[in-house]
Amino acid sequence: MSNQNEHLILINKLMANSINWFEIPAKNFERACNFYSQVLGGDIHEMDMQNLKVGFLPHWNQQTGEVGGAVIKGEGYEPSDKGSVVYLNGGDDLNEPLNRVEKAGGKVILPKTGIGENGYIAHFLDSEGNRVAFHSMK
To answer: Could you tell me which residues come within 8 angstroms of residue 127 by beta carbon, excluding any fewer than 6 positions away?
Structure first.
């Protein structure tokens, strides 16, 4: 397969989702990266980009066209518990990452809650004060 065809397939995969990227604001970049590394159980790849500090969340693979996100510190990025809520993948059972939230410096604000045939959700405040959520089928 040519590189052009592979690139078009990647673009089509990205366009198949309502969301293709998200950014979680941080005041204390190191603390936020440690929080998400502990809660999500993976390494955060850090990078400086155009006057921003960027920490790519674990399990994201740019080459496969999957939805991904990052912790961001920079001008115009303010943590908030109001507004849009990002739902992170809670894995096979969202109890696993949810149980790590408070140990990592966050606070559970909506415990694991059933949403019928659509699985379960839970909301938490991260180390920076952002309201974020998990979703899983169990």
So the answer is: 28, 31, 32, 34, 35, 104, 105, 106
